[in-house]
Write the structure tokens for this entry.
Amino acid sequence: MRFTGKTAIVTGSSRGIGRAIAQRLAREGALAVLCARDGASLETAVREIEAEGGRAASIALDLRRPETPAALAEFALARSGSIDVVVNNAGATKRGAFEALTDEDWADGFALKFFGAVRLTRAAWPHLKRSQGSLLFISGAGGRTPGSEFTIGGSVNAAILSFTKAMADLGIRDGVQVNTINPGTVRTARFGKRLEAFAAEHKIDVSAAERRYVEQADVTRIGEPEDIAALAAFIAGSEGRFLHGSLIDMDGGSTKTI
């Protein structure tokens, strides 16, 4: 129960990695404040947390809008009076051939995952400073190892890695821990759709498609959202406090560079 009495904001927490992180932090005592655009899915996630004996609240917001990150911070403060952990997880970027990606695709990719995170960080920073709290970004392996089908995502993730280092420097002065996790391929609904398409293209079943994907990607396995959640809880907890400005690859070995 390392987060007892603490309040943790987790964005993009209606499903996937964000939902798993919110559940894990709540399980360890935090008041989890969930945010995403899908209000119904958020309510389901809150009920699941409460059914396990945890505490949670949710607010449906589109963090691409400039005013909403500050509203999320105010919502969390109204629930508990403090902000101790912020997990910037929200944001999915469009994949595809570079020639087919429009200016709008690029702008949308940065609007949520990067600018949404920047604005929430700005709004929450004074409160994290007061609580000597922890700021965590969920970026992605593509920020270190870009691919031709992931030009937007790789660029956004790389920007987050740079922002992490800059805020970590500020965090030394202000007593705020700042880190990033770079997940590799994780079993989310989005990956499930990609895997189904891969299976259909190669005329094999989904289990065989996963084995082939793992082999071709040269990784140990597909990650689970709970894998990332466990690391997030460790980093933001007392045992992980010496981690600062760290860009941690949790990707089954997909990042081959130093």
